[in-house]
Amino acid sequence: MRVVVQRVKQGSVTVGGRRVAEIGPGLVILVGAKAGDSTAQADWLAEKCAHLRIFEDEAGKLNRSVLETGGSALVVSQFTLYANAEKGRRPSFIEAAPPEQAEPLIARFAERLQALGVPTQTGQFRAEMLVEIHNDGPVTILLEK
Hints:
D-tyrosyl-trna(Tyr) Deacylase, Chain: A, six-stranded mixed beta sheet, 8 strands, two-stranded antiparallel sheet, alpha/beta
């Protein structure tokens, strides 16, 4: 699995003109699953995201996690994280997990974040989503397991 973690002032997802998720300060996490990924990877990445120290402390150092700041998470499925554009001009998505495998893994990731104490909302799987991200910093981290 691959995740792009963005520290945000706010984030939201709109589907068909209707807002389906919205958070204030915290993390917007774009999540992609690869064929063969497992729940162990989803759990590991959720744990890593919950405890990732990318928020400033009183001294201005990146020493605090989303758990410590009381922030929220917005999890958005993103199969395009497994785009391969090495050849030609059209990306290949052959490495991305099929939807029937990816959906439960991404749901597991979001559920694990919630269980760890991070208030978590999600986008809508397999929908055309308008994702609004107000990146803070900007701080953007790529994690893979």
